[in-house]
Structure formats: structure tokens, C-alpha cells
What we know:
By secondary structure, the chain is mainly α. The chain is 54% helix and 0% strand. Helix 1 runs parallel beside helix 6 and helix 3 (65-84) packs parallel to helix 5. The mean pLDDT is 90.
Amino acid sequence: MEHVPPQNLARPMSADRPPLPSAGDEREVLTAHLDWHRATFEAKCAGLTAEQLSLRAVPPSTLSLHGLLRHLAGVERWWFRIRFAGEDLPLLYYSDDDPDQDFDDLAGDPARALARWREEVAHARRITAGSPLDALGADADRGGPTQLRVCLVKLVAEYARHNGHADLLRECVDGATGY
Length: 179
């Protein structure tokens, strides 16, 4: 195997982003990767104005960082609080009549959307910390109960997908790359 020069290795994104373990038990690896993706997404939103966060910078897509904040807050709530913990809560930024309101209706302050997202992440972390990975969620009405392990994997995949979108949006908004 050839040696890769240090200048060609990926640089750390920020001091705020948690390091990823190269070994560990399943819980440690899954939660570390999810927290890494959460921190990556938050870094992509940092330092922008409300107008920049709400900019739909990649036409014809309706995606914006503000919309992604709303969407990911709803995803956190859906998988951890509703599907797994069985909490009887309304869905965020969704209705049967307007299923895409997380992206389409950007009324409101993006700072409030960021605060809501952080609240949902905090709830998800508490739920995750208090349950074994093989625990089955309480929701049997939507295809049967879901294992916590599956919720974590689904969220890692969701964030990975949307961090790619956020990369493009942020670069279009202000030219910043390398988060």
C-alpha cells in the first residue's frame, strides 16, 4: 500500500465535532456516528443569517438549510419519540394536506427551527441512553414495533443523505466548504 501524504488526508471539520471511534461496542459506534452527523449538520448552519438559512439556493429544488432543520427535527421526533418511545405527539411540520411543509413553508424564524431541532435531539439522546439497543419500540400501528438499533441506523442514514444536501446548499449560500 502506498503512503498518503499528510496534505492529502481529510482535515478535521471543527473542534466542536466529536471524534469518531475506530473501534468500540455497537452502541458507542452508532451513537458516535449519529452525533457526528448531527454536529456536522449544525456546523453547516452556523454563522448564517435567517435569510441565508432560508435561501433555496439550488433551483429547482425547494431545499434550504432552514427546511432541513425543520425536516430533521421532525425526523428525530418521529423515530425516537413517536415510533420508539410511543409518545402521543403531533408531527412537526407535516399534515396529510401539506406533507412537505417542512421544506415548502419557511414562515417563522430559522433560529426557532434550530432551537426545536436541538430540543428533539436532546429528547432522542435521553431515549437512546435509557434503552438497550435491542429494545422494541412501543409503536405497533405503523408496521410493528421498531428496535432502537434500527432507529439509530435510520437516523445515521438520514443525516448522511441530508448532510450531502447541506454541503451543496452552504457552498451556494456563501461559498463555505470543508465542514
